[in-house]
Amino acid sequence: MKKRFAIAADAALMLAKSGAWVPDNHAxxxxxxxxxxxxxxxYSAVRDGSLQKREAENRLDYLRGLQIRLxxxxxxxxxxxxxxxxxDWADTYRAEYIAVTQLQADALVTLDxxxxxxxxxxxxxxxxxxxxxxxx
Length: 136
Prior knowledge:
The protein is α/β, with parallel strands linked by helices. It has helices at 9-18, 33-47, 53-65, 74-87, 93-104, 113-119, 128-132; strands at 3-7, 26-31, 69-71, 107-109, 125-126. Strands 3-2-1-4-5 form a 5-stranded parallel beta sheet, sandwiched between helices. Helix 1 crosses helix 2 and helix 4 (74-87) packs across helix 5.
């Protein structure tokens, strides 16, 4: 049985930079907003000169190859709304990662300490190391 990880944009970008291999016994899920966040981050990095366009394209290809299942249905939206409300957040973006974890994953992988701390009261938070471990 596959272990399912919800992956936040920061963790996905770190994987793309390293080219790390995600074990076959792990599946990845994320809210649909992940696609726009990744594209926007890489575009901004190229625009400000911190990344070459070809490298950004390589990272996008890598991320597409991860076959992350993107979710954004009404149920996820309702969960995200309620989570953002409970946490008194100004928007629902980070709450969508917690919601997708609640609904579809065993753990959330993020590098954001604020998101990780908030998520711990709702879901299990895992590290990138956990995601890449073959025995997890």
